[in-house]
Fold this protein.
Amino acid sequence: MMFVTEFRGSDAARLTAAADAVFAALIDVDHLPEWNARIHHVIESPAPASPVAEGTEWVVQMRASGGRWPSRSRALVVDPVAHRFEYETRTDDGNPTSALWSWLVTPAGAGCELTVTWAVYPRTWGRRLLGARGRRSRKHCRPRPAVGGRVGRLAGQQRRPDRRGGETGRR
């Protein structure tokens, strides 16, 4: 039986929205469920007048793989100049398993490139076993493919069909 102690991944999308607008959408905790299909709703968020800063925490209700759980996140890096946002997430039940998410928005022409990387560190035998199964199927550890398009729309990106009839936004 295989147990995973770490797994990583990344994804990128080209967006027509401006980098500043995309970064603002990423750090707007109250709107996370609008572009992340695995987040059902926000349970706790920072004060409305307070921007997300390093050390800010929030809790969301996750739904994935037939389960649901509260997930607490803490901002580690919030850099609006470099358009970099990093945070750590953990379940809100005391389990030591964690994930590190890093978002980078890079200006590119009239739009931007959105890159997300993640590293998951399962610490209990059950999570290590689930991580092994998830790595085989990849569906448990990847953000929804349309995340770039959803963030872009939230940031005011104009919709433009790609050659397959879908939306641009994902490479």
The radius of gyration is 16 Å.
